[in-house]
């Protein structure tokens, strides 16, 4: 039986996040040909509706309200439930982002439904859809399904291929009105610490530094390489604990779990807790001066050497390549 | 203040994982308090020390989880509750776990509930917010700072690297992010004292729940290990040539740049 699926589109700095397009692709599989309705929530989101359609949504509903400028679970919860009441979907897809992680369990509790979080792959379609998700920080995977009630999943960014954008597609974008009131949390201030732009969870390339970078300045060449490749920087806990960088950069079992196309580990020994956060990356490069370092066991390519020599050489080499291309 | 900390017993982060008969093999594995729950317990103790009151640590699990509860008591929590589901349940999903916790807490008048933002085994991050919603109280996830002043808390929340300052109404459930605090190690006197602290053990019956009330919504059909990663190629030769080769390989063989 085909399903009507609603997909929560996520807006960051005025633009739709890639994970929203990936969520539509996931919804397509779950829907088995059913209708896909994009949802946008914020203070001014109407204009982004067509883009969700171009990526595969059949139509879009929006909830706009001044109280929805900043995400709060109460505000977005009320907005989402207003849409839910109108649409009565059989399935729901969110991105497994800070927002999706915060909001999805609240909605699932309201709906008394199951929720499969952090899905990296979907096998089968419609009623036969089986969801694959990492457990034990990616040291293992489980396959699960929801047999009854709403099929509700959050998908991990960067794992499910979005559909190609089709500028010729058009669909209805309509507003739903909702009462947004009694917010028990108020956002007072937001300090942006993340390095300009590229979010680690969505980055195609991550250049990560460990205790081997020796100090906060040691991240500079890594940052330059990351910028050159359009990627983000990350870190081991060793580097965070030593105060070389912010904990928000930590990758591993008690940090972020990432799966970029290219992970470059510089001055990271490869402790099991670190590997848990990055070993499912598509291609791993290790740069370490210790040939015995554990990181070489998971690396596709390794260079035994001083990162302060190797990274600048890589920067030069890649610049050359770009000039020649 | 009436404070609760939710703790889960998990595999030690050092453990390698193997699968036996369709389940994660537990033989001989070391277990710990989920690392994020250690932050929750530590913060609970600090809040109590500043504002007075009592810290109760709560877990759903088997008899074996007593060990982690004793550790939390040794850190400084006052009381512990183990909801033992071993005889009643073969499986439990996030819906069920949250239902049990909320059912236990619903008449406890908690002012503050602390949980981990995610369990490093199950990894869903659902249990905290689900519990808050079932209790109809406010919640803030992935926090790195907590200050309580009367019926309001000022919380700093980590949002993918950005920090948000949030003013939140109490009663409140928060989930801990790394950086919230440095959890203390239990001291020897703490460990001695913990042995005498109350540890209550309950079953589903005792909180008026039936197995059917927590029947899983999510069916697990398989567990498997990721394909073993083949050790790759360590390049050789002059460093400059190695770098040249690496960049070429990334471009032509791996096609990632
Ligand atoms: C409960 C728990 C949870 C944890 N969670 C995490 C986690 O989420 N993420 C995480 O990363 N860790 C985690 N850890 C810590 C982990 O065990 C390691 O201690 C940590 O990953 C080590 O960081 P590192 O590799 O940067 O440092 P080190 O192990 O000190 O390695 C530094 C490496 O740099 C190399 N090096 C030094 N100088 C240079 C140079 N000039 N050029 C090239 N190489 C150089 C050295 O050869 C060495 O291999 C956790 C630990 C525990 C107990
Ligand atoms: C079909 C299915 C069958 C399962 N069967 C089993 C099984 O037989 N045995 C089993 O152990 N697991 C089983 N699980 C896993 C179990 O559902 C989850 O471990 C549990 O729901 C908690 O989810 P989580 O680990 O993702 O925790 P998260 O939601 O990531 O945890 C967040 C926080 O909630 C709190 N919390 C989480 N769990 C507990 C707890 N048990 N007690 C107190 N506080 C807690 C902690 O503060 C934790 O940091 C099964 C899962 C599925 C889908």
Automatic annotation (TrEMBL), chain A:
Cofactor binding comment, as recorded: Binds 1 FAD per dimer.
Cofactor: FAD
Residues annotated to bind FAD: 211, 236-237, 250-254, 267-274, 288
Tree of life domain: Bacteria
Residue span(s) of domain Electron transfer flavoprotein alpha/beta-subunit N-terminal: 5-190
Listed InterPro entries: DHS-like_NAD/FAD-binding_dom (IPR029035), ETF_a/b_N (IPR014730), ETF_a/FixB (IPR001308), ETF_alpha_N (IPR033947), ETF_asu_C (IPR014731), ETF_asu_C_CS (IPR018206), Rossmann-like_a/b/a_fold (IPR014729)
BP term (GO), one: fatty acid beta-oxidation using acyl-CoA dehydrogenase
A GO MF label: electron transfer activity
Gene3D superfamilies per UniProt: HUPs (3.40.50.620), TPP-binding domain (3.40.50.1220)
Entry keywords, A to Z: Electron transport, FAD, Flavoprotein, Transport
Pfam families: ETF, ETF_alpha
Similarity field: Belongs to the ETF alpha-subunit/FixB family.
Protein's name in the database: Electron transfer flavoprotein subunit alpha
UniProtKB/TrEMBL annotation, chain B:
One Gene Ontology CC term in the entry: cytosol
Signal peptide extent: none
Domain Electron transfer flavoprotein alpha/beta-subunit N-terminal: 21-211
InterPro entries in the cross-refs: ET-Flavoprotein_bsu_CS, ETF_a/b_N, ETF_b, ETF_beta_N, Rossmann-like_a/b/a_fold
Cofactor(s) listed in the protein's UniProt record: AMP
Recorded superkingdom: Bacteria
Keyword terms: Electron transport, Transport
Protein family according to the UniProt entry: Belongs to the ETF beta-subunit/FixA family.
Subunit architecture: Heterodimer of an alpha and a beta subunit.
Protein name per UniProt: Electron transfer flavoprotein subunit beta
């Amino acid at each position: 039986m085909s399903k009507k699926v609603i997909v929560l589109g996520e807006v960051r700095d005025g633009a739709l996040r890639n994970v929203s397009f990936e969520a539509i692709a996931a919804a397509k599989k779950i829907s088995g040909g059913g209708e896909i309705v994009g949802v946008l929530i914020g203070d001014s989101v109407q204009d982004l509706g067509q883009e969700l359609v171009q990526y595969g949504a059949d139509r879009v509903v929006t909830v706009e309200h001044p109280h929805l400028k900043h995400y709060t679970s109460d505000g977005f919860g009320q907005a989402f439930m207003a849409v839910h009441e109108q649409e009565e979907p059989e399935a729901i897809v969110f991105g497994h982002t800070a927002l999706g992680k915060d909001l999805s369990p609240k909605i699932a509790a309201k709906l008394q439904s199951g929720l499969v979080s952090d899905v990296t792959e979907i096998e089968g379609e419609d009623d036969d859809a089986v969801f694959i998700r990492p457990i034990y920080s990616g040291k293992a995977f489980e396959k699960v399904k929801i047999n009854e009630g709403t099929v509700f999943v959050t998908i991990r960014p960067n794992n499910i291929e979005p559909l190609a954008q089709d500028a010729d597609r058009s669909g209805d974008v309509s507003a739903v009105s909702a009462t947004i009131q009694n917010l028990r949390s108020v956002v007072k201030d937001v300090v942006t610490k993340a390095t300009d732009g590229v979010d680690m969870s969505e980055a195609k390339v991550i250049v990560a530094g460990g205790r081997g970078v020796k100090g906060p300045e040691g991240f500079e060449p890594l940052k330059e390489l990351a910028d050159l490749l359009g990627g983000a920087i990350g870190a081991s806990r060793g580097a965070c604990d030593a105060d070389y960088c912010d904990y928000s950069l930590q990758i591993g079992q008690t940090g972020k779990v990432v799966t970029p196309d290219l992970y470059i580990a510089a001055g990271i020994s490869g402790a099991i807790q670190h590997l848990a956060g990055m070993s499912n990356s598509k291609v791993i490069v290790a740069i370490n001066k210790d040939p015995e370092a554990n990181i070489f066991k998971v690396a596709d390519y390794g260079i035994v050497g001083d990162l302060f020599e190797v990274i600048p050489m890589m920067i030069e080499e890649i610049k050359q390549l770009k000039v020649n291309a | 203040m009436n404070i609760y900390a939710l703790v889960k017993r998990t595999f030690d982060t050092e453990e390698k994982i193997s699968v036996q008969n369709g389940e994660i093999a537990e033989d001989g594995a070391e277990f710990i308090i989920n690392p994020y729950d250690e932050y929750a317990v530590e913060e609970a103790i600090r809040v109590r020390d500043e504002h007075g009151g009592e810290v109760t640590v709560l877990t759903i699990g088997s008899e074996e989880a007593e060990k982690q509860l004793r550790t939390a008591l040794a850190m400084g929590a006052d009381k512990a509750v183990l909801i033992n589901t071993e005889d009643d349940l073969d499986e439990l999903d996030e819906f069920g776990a949250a239902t049990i916790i909320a059912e236990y807490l619903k008449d406890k008048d908690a002012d503050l509930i602390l949980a981990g933002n995610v369990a490093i085994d199950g990894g869903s991050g659902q249990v905290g917010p689900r519990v808050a919603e079932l209790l109809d109280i406010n919640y803030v996830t992935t926090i790195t700072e907590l200050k309580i002043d009367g019926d309001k808390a000022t919380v700093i929340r980590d949002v993918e690297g950005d920090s948000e300052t949030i003013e939140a109404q109490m009663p409140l459930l928060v989930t801990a992010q790394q950086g919230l605090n440095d959890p203390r190690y239990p001291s020897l006197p703490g460990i001695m004292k913990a042995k005498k602290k109350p540890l209550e053990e309950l079953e589903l019956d005792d909180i008026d729940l039936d197995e059917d009330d927590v029947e899983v919504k999510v069916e697990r059909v398989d567990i498997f290990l990721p394909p073993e990663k083949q050790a790759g190629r360590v390049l050789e030769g002059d460093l400059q040539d190695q770098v040249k080769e690496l960049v070429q390989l990334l471009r032509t063989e791996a096609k990632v740049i």
